[in-house]
Design brief:
The chain is of the alpha/beta class. Helices cover 27% and strands 31% of the residues.
Length: 212
């Protein structure tokens, strides 16, 4: 499976990214475009899935340092901002057997393989979604589906500047979790666009393995 890869750039407002996703979902439903991965860096924003329990935003959610958006994905609060790659795979899940669990595992594996390009050994943890380095969380995943077309996706902290926004929330609702970045783990600054290219390559491969 070969995903088209579109780099949307830095400083993308969350609402703009959401509108692009929605447009691409409709385009795939109409067979106007093929499966693709949208990659970008967002302006600082907090997002949370549609859930009654919003405690992960903290007791003073109304005074968080950045805007908060409620969206149609699973999961608790997370942060997006500079130094972090956000990936939105927009693809038809029917050839993958409509298996959301397998789809999420494919995203995790693609991120793990991409980290290996920088000499960092990342992994998953039993019972938890996302990618970790030992007990430190590196990447979060939250997907949405519309007529079996995927939207939303993953966020991986690449440079240290991506970590400050997490200090005001309980990331993904996990008390006591330590967030990390790829730069923190490998000791060198990371090109977000370069990592995005690796990720597109590895995600194409892990999705192809599901079809086989």
């Amino acid at each position: 499976m070969q995903l088209l890869h579109r780099w949307l750039g830095n400083g993308v407002d969350f609402q703009e990214g959401l509108e692009i996703q929605q447009h691409m979902v409709q385009a795939i439903l109409k067979n106007e475009v093929k499966d693709l991965l949208l990659s970008l860096e967002h302006n600082p924003v907090y997002t949370i899935g549609r859930t009654r329990d919003q405690s992960s935003l903290g007791t003073e959610a109304n005074i968080l340092p950045h805007p908060t958006v409620e969206i149609n994905r699973g999961g608790q609060a997370t942060y997006h901002g500079p130094g972090q790659l956000v990936g939105y795979p927009i693809l038809d899940l029917k050839p993958l057997g409509r298996d959301l669990h397998a789809y999420i595992r494919a995203i995790e594996e693609a991120l793990i393989r991409s980290c290996a390009e920088y000499g960092v050994t990342a992994s998953t943890r039993d019972g938890l979604t996302g990618v970790w380095v030992e007990n430190r969380k590196l990447a979060s995943i939250g997907v949405g589906v519309r007529k079996w077309i995927s939207m939303h996706g993953f966020a991986i902290n690449l440079n240290k500047e991506s970590l400050t926004g997490f200090l005001s929330i309980t990331p993904c609702g996990l008390d006591g979790v330590t967030m990390t970045s790829l730069e923190s783990e490998c000791g060198s600054a990371i090109s977000v666009q370069e990592f995005a290219n690796y990720c597109a390559e590895h995600l194409s491969a892990t999705l192809a393995e599901l079809i086989l």
